Amino acid sequence: MYMLALLCVELVITGVILMLANPLYKGFVKEHQVLLKPTIVAPVSLWLMDKLRVADRLPESISKIHHMMFGLYGSKTAMIRTKCFIVRILSYSILIVIGSTFLGWASDVGAEMLAYGSGLLLFLPFLLYKNLASQLLKKKRQMLLDLPEMVNQIVLLVNAGETVQKALMRCIERNPNVQKSPLLTELSIAAYEIGMNASFTKSMEDFNKRCGVQEVSLFTTTLLLNYKRGGDELVMSLKELSFTLWEKRKSIAKTLGEEASSKMVFPMVFIFLVVMIVVAAPAILMMEQ
């Protein structure tokens, strides 16, 4: 009976906060509804976030999340995405609390179901953060895989008499899968800025910040130090860099291969057990007869 009472209290509190928060955050939720899923309790989470001053209480954790959002999506949307990420954690937490209480009442398990819900609440931020970290790692690895090819293209185009600016633009124009490559996507933004008469130095520095990868920083530094001189000095510098980048790419490819093989261990063990059961079952049945 107490579980039903607890469920009613939770629903009433959530409903009251939703009534108070909906007029305040309706516009924000509508504008960023893709990032705020589940949106049904997003206003409640935004209200709690402001009232509890989460940003002031957890500055280090939020700073880490913001840094990852900056690396994944750039500086323009990093702040909003960080806020939406925290709201999502709060929204899932609210739904877990209400859901575990409801299941505890419906199944007569009671406090045991609440304990399971509490355990899930503890792991939820860690799981979402780990997923974010894996996305950032995947993006950086993809950039490192694409960078050597891009540097080789620039070397060939500069050797053919193109300027550095035009060589960068041709790298974008000749690749039909720009949107699938994080590196070329960021480079296309820089190329667009250069095409709109923005400073080449400023555009490449912004490109470097958006990527947030050490090897890309080395590439942009080499480019900015030598692009005005052009000619053999730039080509030689890029060739030396290309050799280093290809070695890095080989190392990443080797790591990815090892990870893929380790992921196959569990399916192989499972298949082995199934085969053993299929082979051993007839023999066991014959022995019982």
Automatic annotation (TrEMBL):
Claim: Cell inner membrane is one of the keywords in the record: no
UniProt KW Membrane keyword: yes
Transmembrane portions of the chain: 6-25, 85-107, 113-133, 264-285
Keyword field: Membrane, Transmembrane, Transmembrane helix
Source superkingdom: Bacteria
Protein name as annotated: Type II secretion system protein
Organism field: Paenibacillus baimaensis
